[in-house]
């Protein structure tokens, strides 16, 4: 499976997103995904499923060292002591001694970013995380986070799909040698998958519309995807996107959908987003 080499990290280009999965379903899906070849799993303290994810990893029998596991610190826990406690508690729940990537889940303007980045670096130094990064950081805040971090940041995980222009964030990630990891990569299905640019490419390649959209992500430099599904049969479909490619015309047609400017995840605590 393709990996992104970014600032010393090797991130499998496709991972399993686990947001909203929990309990036995989550354990089952993580274990099944790893069993069919996934090597990248994404969770977060706020998802409430770290125990289930850890159990899925153990149940899969896949060696821990073969798996790239990400978790995240919630935005209310970004003061130094809270961040350290959050990282340690995540590991307790996962029943693991380290994660591969620890992300600041959302920025928090009420807590100095310098304090947060310093604490993140200390947690990395102590071995709780092999790599560090951020999530939901617009380009201006990403530049600030990079400047404040001793260790290179390896990823910024953001909402990204053909309905949302993330050129500025993508350029900022590339400038700093980082991956951009797309969550909600297929816009939770629905309307996007019926768009003619997507449906026509699907018919031409004999692929599903979801595979076309996931391939659209991977055609872009240093972009990884973490589609979430609660259906086992979809796991194999989502990962089977390496045997074909989209040409420039297909990429452009799908990318034109970004004029819609639709965002799924926007909250009272969201930062000021980049404008296209
Ligand atoms: C509120 C969670 C967004 C994706 O991790």
Radius of gyration: 18 Å
Tell how many strands the DSSP assignment holds.
10
Largest sheet: 8 strands, parallel
Range of helix content: 40-55%
- Architecture, according to CATH? Alpha-Beta Barrel
> Counting H and I runs of at least 4 residues, what is the number of helices?
11
- Portion of residues in beta strands equals 15-25%
Tell me about this structure.
This protein has 276 residues and is α/β, with parallel strands linked by helices. The protein has a single domain (3-189, 222-241), classed as NADP-dependent oxidoreductase domain (TIM Barrel, Alpha-Beta Barrel), CATH 3.20.20. The chain is built from eleven helices and ten strands. The strands form two sheets. The protein has an eight-stranded parallel sheet with strand order 3-4-5-6-7-8-9-10. A two-stranded antiparallel sheet has the order 1-2. β4 (40-42), α2 and β5 (68-73) form a beta-alpha-beta unit. α1 (23-35) runs parallel beside α2 (50-60), α2 crosses α3 and α8 (196-205) packs across α9 (209-218). It is globular, with a radius of gyration of 18 Å. The two termini are 32 Å apart. Bound molecules: 1-butanol. 1-butanol is lined by residues 19, 44, 183, 265.
């Amino acid at each position: 499976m393709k990996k992104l080499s970014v600032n010393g990290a090797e991130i499998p280009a496709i991972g399993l997103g686990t947001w909203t999965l929990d309990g036995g379903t989550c354990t089952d899906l993580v274990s099944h995904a790893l069993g069919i070849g996934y090597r990248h799993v994404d969770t977060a303290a706020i998802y409430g499923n770290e125990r289930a994810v850890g159990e899925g990893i153990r149940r899969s029998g896949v060696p821990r060292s073969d798996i790239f596991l990400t978790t995240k610190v919630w935005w209310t826990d970004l003061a130094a002591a809270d961040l350290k406690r959050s990282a340690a508690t995540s590991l307790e729940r996962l029943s693991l001694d380290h994660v591969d990537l620890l992300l600041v889940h959302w920025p928090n303007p009420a807590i100095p970013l310098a304090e947060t980045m310093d604490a993140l670096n200390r947690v990395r130094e102590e071995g709780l995380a092999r790599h560090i990064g951020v999530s939901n950081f617009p380009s201006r805040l990403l530049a600030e986070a990079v400047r404040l971090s001793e260790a290179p940041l390896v990823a910024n995980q953001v909402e990204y799909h053909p309905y949302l222009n993330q050129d500025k964030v993508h350029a900022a990630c590339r400038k700093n040698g980082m991956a951009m990891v797309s969550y909600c990569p297929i816009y939770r299905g629905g309307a996007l998958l019926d768009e003619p640019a997507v449906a026509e490419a699907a018919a031409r390649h004999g692929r599903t519309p979801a595979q076309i959209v996931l391939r659209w992500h991977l055609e872009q430099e240093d972009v990884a995807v973490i589609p979430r599904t609660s259906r086992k049969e979809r796991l194999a479909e989502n990962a089977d996107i390496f045997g074909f490619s989209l040409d420039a015309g297909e990429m452009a047609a799908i990318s034109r959908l970004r004029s819609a400017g639709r965002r799924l995840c926007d909250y009272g605590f969201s930062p000021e987003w980049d404008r296209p």
